[in-house]
Amino acid sequence: MSVVTVKNRGYKVPFKLSDVLLETLEHRNQLLEEYRLQLGGGSVSYLNHTETPRDPLRSNLLKLLYKYKCQICDKRIETSPGKYTCHTHHLFQVGDGGPDDLANMMVVCPNCHIMLDKGALYLDIDFDRVLHFRTNHELHRKSINIKHYIDEYYVGVQNDRYRTN
Ligand SMILES: [Zn+2]
Fold this sequence. Notes:
It is built from four helices and seven strands. It is of the alpha+beta class.
């Protein structure tokens, strides 16, 4: 797989990818706690194992950055008082060889997650908006929330799933 280098859009992310590759479990949970506090609280699942193909440290950091709100529809699901649930979606699916890398990930609600998986949505990343195959759908041309760097190559892989008929 050749990864196309794209322009850095200058997103300000409070953590660096290199931070996320810390080796000991203690350091990794410490980092998670620091960013949890920096980003104004929220609940996280602390880690009980070191890096796996899908690392919960990265997805936890991203969920904190977006305060558990879906980047597509802005919804946040409260599952118990003060506790929120959201998913992280890999644009280039890990099962297909995509990396578990922040630049390949988005925070989404379960509804938007399934629409991305099934190709109902097109990410128009140049305009920070989403298109739905039904042009009268509430999400069609809705602006999306992007606070971290997303690689356009992975967006392209995602958009290959989009079908309008
Ligand atoms: Zn959503």
